[in-house]
Amino acid sequence: MLYDLDILPTIMKTSKQIWFNGEFIPWAEAQVHVMTHSLHYGDAVFEGIRVYGGAVFRLDDHLERFFESMKALEMESPYDRAQVYDAILELLRREGTIDGYIRPIAFYGDGGLKVGWEGMPVSVAIGVLPWDGYSSSELKLKVSDVRRFSPEMVKMDAKVSGYYVNSNFAGPNALLLDSEGNVAEAACANIFFVQDGKLFTPSTGSILPGLTRDTVIQIARDEGIEVVEGNIKDLSVFQEAFTTGTATEICLVVEIDNHKYDSREVTSFLQEKYSEIVSGKNQKYKKWLIYVD
């Protein structure tokens, strides 16, 4: 089955409550003013986090990036990491969510129309959405004429809402190149290639270094698979390709433009290992799982 990387709009259901600025409120009441600064200028930061079987995957790492992203936008959060951590777990308990998707977001609120964010109030909200994942799928990607943001333009390590305009211009199943013509990432996922049993993936710089990307790199190295991070231009030399992301996990890529990838051996192996880890079957990585109860 061919697959679209941008799956979130088709899978998400509403929940009963949202944690919004320190309070649990009904879903329908979680609203902001139309003059909210981040609505106009795209200066919000967020995370996408998965919960599997009542265990949140890499919660500490996601929250570390969440707060680092706030720092990149000079946001002074009214809540510390411990408070957001506790709020996520309590919201999961209240919703009874066993399998789902967690979306914390921080944004500049209503404080005037100036472009600068100095002095703007900061709001923090958390949504939890029930979701039990998706079936294994295959991707066909197209190299886009739209280039990835350059690190000279923005802070690439931050997960900023406004950056995703770049992805939308490219399209959901696009493969973006960096300003030098090297492979950067897919529209909303990192990418890996396989050549003679080795993994190749673009260096950090013109990509958002995803946590699923980091997970795959750690699994591969633990399993004795060499991982090479560097510049990639010629896509025809590889036997396999796959993308990584929190929502889509590890997705097999069967074609980029007119080049087909017929092998799936390494990708399937990593998919199996990833599934073992998130389901709690691999005790070596149990530190990555935070159980709600």
Beta content: 25-35%
Number of helical stretches of at least 4 residues: 7
| CATH topology name of the largest domain | D-amino Acid Aminotransferase, Chain A, domain 2
Taken from the alpha-carbon principal axes, the silhouette is: globular
Q: Give the class from helix and strand content and strand pairing.
A: alpha+beta
CATH architecture of the largest domain: Alpha-Beta Barrel
* CATH-defined superfamily of the largest domain: D-amino Acid Aminotransferase, subunit A, domain 2
Mean pLDDT metric: 94
Question: What is the CATH level 1 assignment of the largest domain?
Answer: Alpha Beta
Q: Say how many strands there are.
A: 17
Number of domains: 2
- Characterize the largest beta sheet: strand count, sense, and whether it forms a barrel: 9 strands, mixed
Q: Gyration radius, to the nearest Å?
A: 19 Å
Which residue ranges are poorly predicted, with pLDDT under 50 across at least 5 consecutive positions?
A: none
